[in-house]
Amino acid sequence: MTTRKYAMRTACLLLVAGLSACAAAGPVLRAAAPSHPEHAGRASEPMSPSPFVVPLDAATLAKLPREPVKASAHGQDLDCEGVALAGLLRATGAVPADPLRGPQLARYLLVTARDGYRAIYSLAELDPSLSDRRVLLVDHCSGKPLDDDDGPLRLIAPGDARPARWVRQVKSITVVAAP
Ligand SMILES: Nc1nc2c(c(=O)[nH]1)N[C@H]1C(S)=C(S)[C@@H](COP(=O)(O)O)O[C@H]1N2
Ligand SMILES: [Mo]
């Protein structure tokens, strides 16, 4: 073998070895891409587990300030009373007391009803530092407890142009981190 041929073969071997090394490094490079948003927050921020079922028992609700809300659905005026969803989430530890940030912004509330109806609200739209929209969990309208068709708990979001998310017969409210 000539010196030149030997040099060429060595160079080729080095090239192949280099490419193999790069191929082997591939998954490592991919792993360095941005991590899942749920893990992108500061380590010091306490996070509730996901899913987190928000307590809706009478004792929990009784501790919260009551708020009136007037709204209109299908031409019918509603004059109701209940608690702010934002206050309920904070009081039960579902969200931190501070303005939402980081991975909290990729979380949402799943609201289910006894008849199978479901709707979601993002945590962000319920945070008073991000939005002035009110969403209330009401238990009385026109001075009376809600009947079984509507209650005993119903959501009312007067900022929504249609009442489609005003879930009647609320069965559960769960905080969920987006997958
Ligand atoms: N549990 C439950 N809540 C629900 C619904 C439903 O089918 N089931 N329909 C929604 C829709 S689409 C509308 S427009 C309003 C209707 O509210 P109303 O029956 O009080 O007018 O309720 C919302 N909440
Ligand atoms: Mo609707």
TrEMBL record:
Q: Which InterPro entries does the record match to this protein?
A: OxRdtase_Mopterin-bd_dom (IPR000572), OxRdtase_Mopterin-bd_sf (IPR036374)
Q: Keywords on this record?
A: Signal
Q: Where is the signal peptide?
A: 1-25
Residues in domain Oxidoreductase molybdopterin-binding?
A: 81-177
Classification via Pfam families = Oxidored_molyb
Keyword Heme tagged: no
Q: What is this protein called?
A: Molybdopterin-dependent oxidoreductase
Q: What is the lineage of its organism?
A: Bacteria, Pseudomonadati, Pseudomonadota, Gammaproteobacteria, Lysobacterales
